[in-house]
Amino acid sequence: SSAAPALVSAARPLLGPETLPDWQSLVGGEALRALAGAALGVGLGPKLTTNAWRFDPGDHMHVHPDGPRYDGTYSLGLNADWRAAHGGAIAFGVPGSMGFAVAERWLPHGGDLLLFAPHARSWHCVEPVRAGLRLTLTGWWSTP
User: Fold this and answer.
1) Three-state helix/strand/coil letters over 63-76
2) Closest residue by Cα to residue 58 from 83, 88, 89, 81
3) Is the alpha carbon torsion for 85, 90, 92, 97 positive or negative?
4) The predicted structure's pLDDT at residue 38
5) Is-contact 69 142, C-beta < 8 A?
6) What is the CB neighbour count within 10 angstroms for residue 45?
7) In the prediction, which pLDDT does 5 show?
8) Is 106 exposed, middle or buried (0-12, 13-18, 19+ CB in 10 A)?
9) Whose CA is closest to 86, among 57, 59, 63?
10) Which of 75, 96, 97, 127 could be a cystine partner for 138, CB 3.0 to 4.6 Å?
11) Residues 128 and 143 sit within 8 Å (Cβ to Cβ)
């Protein structure tokens, strides 16, 4: 029997509340949580999980939905001068027999924040990085 391929090919330290305390306080704080929840049209739970991602050339994340585990998901781009030619976009779309039909892409430009309310059909991936070093902070709000 062969093992399923890993969902992610990248480096990801999981950050606890003691890491980046100002970031955790800002994103996990009531004011930003309420603002993000209002923008998404959903209530965001008080638990915040944050990951710091480093994608090198060739790294990627396979197509998956976040589903019901999370109330809201965010990704903060940390790359100055990132271009589409670098790859590494978060792509949203629909999987099918002919592959993944991409409807929208988001690039990790420095300071750009992507918010989405995940559900069982919010299929997305991180496309392979072709050049450069892709850095993001990502995470989700959930109800304990």
Assistant:
1) EEECHHHCCEEEEE
2) 88
3) positive
4) 96
5) yes
6) 16
7) 59
8) middle
9) 57
10) 75
11) no
Q: Tokens standing for 109?
A: 């430009």
Half-sphere exposure of 61 (CA within 13 A, CB side): 19
pLDDT the model gives residue 59: 93
In what helix (H) or strand (E) does residue 106 lie, and over which residues does it extend? strand 99-106
Q: Is 132 helix (H, G, I), strand (E, B) or coil?
A: coil
β-bridge mates for residue 104, sequence order: 92
CA-angle at 112, arms to 60 and 118, nearest 5°? 60
Residue 89 near residue 127, CB atoms below 8 Å = yes
Which residues, listed in sequence order, are joined to residue 61 by a DSSP beta bridge? Answer: 8, 126
DSSP codes of every residue in 17-58: TTSSHHHHHHHHSHHHHHHHHHHHTS---SEEEEEEEEE-TT
| Amino acid 16: pLDDT | 58
Residues lower than pLDDT 70 in the chain: 1-8, 11-18
**The one-letter amino acid at 8:** V
